[in-house]
Amino acid sequence: MTFTWADFASAEPRFAEAVRWRFEKYSHHVLATLRKDGSPRVTGLEVTFRWGELWLGMMPHSRKARDLERDPRFAVHANPGPDDRMADGDIRIGGRAVEVRDEAVRARFAVDQSPPEPFLLFRVSPEEVVETTVDGSDLVIRVWRQGSPVRTLRRGPGEGPPREDPRDDHRVDHREEG
């Protein structure tokens, strides 16, 4: 059975909601796929959260679609925002894109989203979610990997290794700011 966004959200509801909010703040994001020769390809993409799942839609025969049909591994990076402040942090989701061929699901998606026709639809099976923010002089990195709870690491300006941070209260919830 494929691990789903709903499974992630059930296991880590607070983190999943913060990630979803961050992706929904802007329409366009960056998708990384693997070319036939194994080298990376990056391209623009919109992501959609519907019915408790994370979806990727794209045109058939596009290079990113062909990449995913051949090798479903991907990473999608949230739009960093309008300037260089990175006020809302940096978010990346990595995993596998599972093509949806069920016509009932595709029809429901088409009615809800009105994608350009024809389209391919992929359901995200997340394997890793990473959020990077700044707290004072520290980088704060929250990492979730499938099968493990969220870990919070801090990396200071020195050369020392990152240190585990057992607290989860460093995250500023920007959703409440307006």
Largest sheet: 6 strands, antiparallel, barrel
Overall shape: globular
Radius of gyration: 17 Å
Mean pLDDT over the residues = 90
Q: Can you walk me through this structure?
A:
The chain is α+β, with helices and mostly antiparallel strands and 178 residues long. The chain is 21% helix and 39% strand. The chain has four helices and nine strands, in the order ααβββαββαββββ. It has helices at 5-11, 13-24, 63-70, 103-113, and strands spanning 28-34, 40-50, 53-58, 73-77, 90-99, 120-135, 138-145, 151-155, 163-164. The chain has a six-stranded antiparallel barrel. It is globular.
What key attributes describe this structure?
six-stranded antiparallel beta barrel, disordered C terminus, 39% strand, alpha+beta, 178 residues, single chain
Topology of this structure?
Elements: H1 5-11, H2 13-24, E1 28-34, E2 40-50, E3 53-58, H3 63-70, E4 73-77, E5 90-99, H4 103-113, E6 120-135, E7 138-145, E8 151-155, E9 163-164
Antiparallel strand pairs: 1-2, 1-4, 2-3, 3-6, 4-5, 5-6, 6-7, 7-8, 8-9
Brief digest:
The protein has 178 residues and is an alpha+beta fold.
